[in-house]
Amino acid sequence: MRDVAVSIVLTLLRVGLRVLERVVPQTRSVVLSAYPETEGNGVEVARALVDRYAGRVVWLRDGGPVPPEVQALAARGLVLVPKASPAGLWAYLRAEAVLFTHGLYGSPRLRKPVVNIWHGDGPKGIAPSKDAGRLIESTYFVGSTPLFSHHQAATFGVPAERVLLTGNPRTDQLWRPAGADRLAALGITQEFVVWMPTFRTARAVGAMRAGGPVTEDRAGLAELAAGLRAQGRQLVVKPHPMDADRRAWPGAVTLDEGDLSAAGVTLYELLGASSGLVTDYSSVWVDYLLTDRPIAFLVHDRDTYDRPLHPADVLDWVPGEVVDLDREPFARFLADPDAGLRREVATRIGLNRSATAADDLVTALVKLGVLESA
């Protein structure tokens, strides 16, 4: 019943907004929406727009404490408006362009440009749910690799010529790594590796769908943690923000968005300070390739995972150890013989190696006429 009610409300909202957009005059302004609010693609695009855009930059909020990075931008002119408010809808209708990471107000098809900055390139299928979820209407799609970005854009009905391969803006933060004092506030006092699995079962967030059953499988983590301890390194666990599973592991530092925000550290500043990454189907490994540091793939449900992968054989050529629990798990990762493989895979997927992705995106939008001036 909840999904049916959400679908009805979203349908009415989409129809109403399409009608209103035709009569409400536009102003020199843009609106941005990101989930979570700390999502680096949203924050870094907001930063670039505040620096360069001549109009009003409106950040639509879901509520709760304002993250430090958003507060800092608000002090420089970013306008914070509650998303679920008449002011938020008015800003949306009057904007000359809309940018978001997960859709906005039911994502109706608008006459104004809608830029889907999304939240990463990767092999995981992103087809929307047939229940409360739906196609996220987009004029442009932002990504960092021809292989993954074009496939994702096609899911949203965005043609190849409107895919902007300027890089994921959040990767700009990799080059601003968190310092020792801020890491210590998180409980990180040594060199460290981050474990970032994708979610299997989603927490209820708006109209987003749920996946399969929560997994409690931690096979391989004991070997990883022991290997890191032997090298004087820590294990840091960062669950996906939508994950129903906390992913905690004894002796590891487990961090969520609230922990990072309290310490004034963004996720990609954390990754920029790390010495390695363990993940699975998550898009984070594509971004992390930019650092040229070791990556391992801990995949316990390769045969039962409920989303398709693109390409289907991606786990056969990923840029690091695919952990085999029967054969010295993580030995290759801890030794790191894969620098050549990482470079080979970066070339294979066509990774954009820019360190100024957010600024590059704004430049592209100006050239396309999406933004009137910057």
Automatic annotation (TrEMBL):
InterPro entries referenced in this protein's UniProt entry, alphabetically: Glycerophosphate_synth, TagF_C, TagF_N, Teichoic_Acid_Biosynth
Transmembrane segments: none
Subcellular location: Cell membrane
Pfam families named in the record: Glyphos_transf
Principal location listed in the UniProt entry: membrane
Gene3D superfamilies recorded: 3.40.50.11820, 3.40.50.12580
Keyword set, alphabetical order: Cell membrane, Membrane, Teichoic acid biosynthesis, Transferase
Membrane topology: Peripheral membrane protein
Origin: domain of life: Bacteria
Family recorded in the similarity comment: Belongs to the CDP-glycerol glycerophosphotransferase family.
Name of the protein this chain belongs to: CDP-glycerol glycerophosphotransferase family protein
Organism name: Nocardioides caricicola
